[in-house]
User: Which sequence fits this backbone?
């Protein structure tokens, strides 16, 4: 399979008064159609990695190393080549536009559709993310939907421009367990149907192992271990990975995690 994204010796520092090095010497490839989980405790640099890949770091951040898109042969355009789903769907949804208007706008801007075509396409997408009544959902405002429904809409918007990469950053972490499982399954289906690559970012290694082909474990801004799910779950090389497995899969291993992560 071809390499869709190559991250080479990536370093990121934020500069707010002083310089804080948040990612250090991170290298990995993401193949076409591959599902990679990015795992680590809060503060380990997962969101920073996602923002660096999407070109969304705050102005003034220092970036070392390379992020390459071999298939694309150019830098990716935001909202078109990369779809982003955040933990809080409100951060990607506009409260004063209807669902139909905002999804249609993405299709119009990136796929060159007329309003009429884009609106019909939006309705089709709302069906794909399994909203029960897509034609009413088109006319609804975000606040009229439940949290789980809003996250489905955010996913529809993220895939609307047919991106090659979908980044889900703790996209199911705020949802209750049943809805979380449904959304994980939905993301899995959409990624397979559209041939997208997936970066599934989560603090929960058990959840991530249900959707990923490979798992990358981050600690203090470094990629400490990467491998196939079976290898990571059944034969982790790092004691830290064993600690994460112990917490999320109920295994009995001494913990290296920060105390708040276990609570
Ligand atoms: N805009 C920012 N300015 C300065 N420091 C930041 C900024 N965003 C995140 N950080 C810091 O970078 C580190 C990594 O954060 P983040 O990438 O959000 O980790 P994660 O997503 O794994 O929780 C944390 O110590 C966090 O406080
Ligand atoms: Mg984060």
Assistant:
């Amino acid at each position: 399979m071809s390499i869709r994204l190559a991250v080479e010796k990536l370093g990121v520092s934020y500069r707010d008064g002083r310089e804080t090095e948040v990612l250090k010497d991170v290298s990995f490839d993401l193949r076409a159609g591959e599902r990679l989980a990015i795992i680590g405790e809060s503060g380990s640099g997962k969101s920073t990695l996602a923002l660096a890949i999407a070109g969304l770091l705050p102005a003034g951040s220092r970036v070392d190393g390379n992020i390459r898109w071999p298939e694309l042969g150019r830098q990716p355009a935001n909202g078109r080549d990369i779809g982003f789903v955040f933990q809080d769907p409100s951060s990607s949804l506009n409260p004063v536009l209807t669902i139909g208007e905002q999804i249609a706008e993405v299709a119009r801007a990136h796929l060159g559709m007329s309003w009429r075509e884009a609106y019909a396409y939006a309705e089709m997408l709302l069906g794909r993310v399994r909203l029960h009544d897509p034609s009413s959902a088109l006319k609804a405002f975000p606040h009229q939907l439940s949290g789980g429904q809003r996250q489905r809409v955010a996913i529809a918007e993220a895939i609307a421009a047919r991106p090659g990469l979908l980044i889900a950053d703790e996209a199911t972490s705020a949802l209750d367990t049943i809805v979380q499982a449904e959304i994980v399954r939905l993301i899995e289906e959409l990624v397979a149907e559209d041939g997208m690559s997936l970066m599934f970012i989560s603090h929960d290694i058990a959840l991530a192992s249900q959707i990923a082909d490979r798992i990358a474990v981050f600690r203090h801004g470094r990629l400490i271990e990467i491998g196939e799910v079976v290898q990571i779950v059944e034969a982790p090389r790092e004691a830290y990975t064993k600690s994460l497995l112990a917490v999320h899969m109920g295994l009995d291993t001494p913990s290296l995690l920060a105390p708040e992560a276990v609570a």
